[in-house]
Write a structure and sequence with these properties.
- With 326 residues, the chain is of the alpha+beta class.
- The protein has 2 domains: 201 residues, Jelly Rolls, CATH 2.60.120; 104 residues, Arc Repressor Mutant, subunit A (Orthogonal Bundle), CATH 1.10.10.60.
- Helices cover 44% and strands 20% of the residues.
- The protein is built from 13 helices and 11 strands.
- Strands 1-3-4-11-6-9 form a 6-stranded antiparallel beta sheet, sandwiched between helices.
- Helix 1 runs parallel beside helix 4, helix 3 packs across helix 6 and helix 3 runs antiparallel to helix 10.
Length: 326
């Protein structure tokens, strides 16, 4: 596994939307549709573009292999940005500027940029890359499911070493496209996208899921066991007695541990996790998903109660969130 393997797989399995294309206007139009709005300038007056783009559409994400064949500068264009671009270099070098941050990208040193700041990239003629486009709404939704807070995600631009683990997940996703497995289980790609985004959020430093070790509050093994037990059964009806018994402790001790370490009770914590999981599923908007399906899968068996709790937490109804993602 590795970026080169992923690049070859994307080239073989993807749809060729540009093939040694020389026309800059056509390149801008096609790459804007596949990726994001931008402008393009050839850096050497007599240089000729020979741009190749292959595009693999997953669900809300895509994997793209793109090379320009000449020294170019790519910069912010007109239009609303609603994505994160994860760039994995295959060959050559590129200087990425995102806001006030500049990072040199080369094979083994990738970058990620968001939708929040102006950008400019300067690539040499040998530049070859895999670009993973991630939907902004999905990224923010998964972050909300992890942290319980809604808001924008700002990643460090230079990729951390741990992000290399995404190579294998991305290869799996590309391999599944148009496969018999996805034909029989359409949600597979959506679920794999969730894993990819969660892995990115936990591996790449950002403002939402990264924890400063000096600020982290340790959770006792007893409380951790209870949390894991409840998350593993988030769709099942649970009592605090059942949780305490599974963790080998008394109800009183478990309640006291949660109040001391988390400032809540076990069942209040579980209810919050269920609401967050429901929001992440609805905001993801998987094909065929219904509010009822989400409510039941997250342990809410009274739809009115679920709707009221969801509205109190997020200010909108579950059906509104689902409708916005379709």
């Amino acid at each position: 596994m590795g970026v080169l393997t992923l690049a070859r797989l994307a080239a073989n399995r993807g749809r060729a939307v540009l093939s040694d294309t020389e026309d800059a206007d056509q390149i801008i139009d096609v790459c804007t549709g596949a990726l994001r709005p931008h402008s393009l300038a050839v850096r050497q007056a007599r240089a000729q573009l020979a741009t190749t783009l292959t595009h693999v559409q997953l669900r809300d994400a895509s994997v793209n292999r793109l090379r320009y064949g000449a020294e170019v500068t790519v910069s912010s264009g007109d239009g609303v940005l609603d994505d994160y671009l994860l760039t994995l270099p295959v060959a050559g070098a590129g200087m990425f500027r995102y806001g006030d941050t500049e990072v040199l990208a080369t094979p083994g040193r990738g970058v990620i940029i968001g939708p929040h700041r102006e950008f400019e990239f300067a690539f040499d003629a040998a530049w070859d890359q895999v670009i993973v486009r991630l939907d902004r709404g999905r990224v923010e939704s998964v972050a909300a499911g992890i942290t319980g807070e809604v808001g924008p995600v700002h990643f460090d631009v230079a990729l951390a070493e741990g992000v290399i683990s995404l190579d294998g997940l991305l290869e799996s996703a590309v391999s599944l496209v148009d496969s018999a497995a996805v034909e029989h289980r359409p949600h597979l790609l959506w679920q794999l996208e969730q894993v990819i985004i969660e892995t990115l959020l936990l591996a790449q430093p950002n403002n939402r899921t990264s924890v400063d070790p000096d600020d982290a509050q340790p959770v006792s093994p007893r409380v951790r066991r209870a949390m894991d037990f409840m998350l593993d059964r988030i769709g099942e009806p649970l009592t605090v007695t059942a949780v305490a018994e599974a963790c080998g402790t008394s109800v009183r001790s478990l309640q006291a541990g949660f109040r001391r370490e988390l400032g809540t009770t076990p069942l209040q914590w579980l209810r919050s996790q269920r609401i967050e999981r429901a929001h992440a599923l609805l905001a993801g908007g998987a094909p065929g998903l219904s509010v009822t399906d989400v409510a039941y899968s997250c342990g809410f068996f009274h739809l009115g109660e679920f709707s009221n709790a969801f509205r109190r937490r997020y200010g909108v109804t579950p059906s509104t969130v689902l409708a916005e993602r379709r």
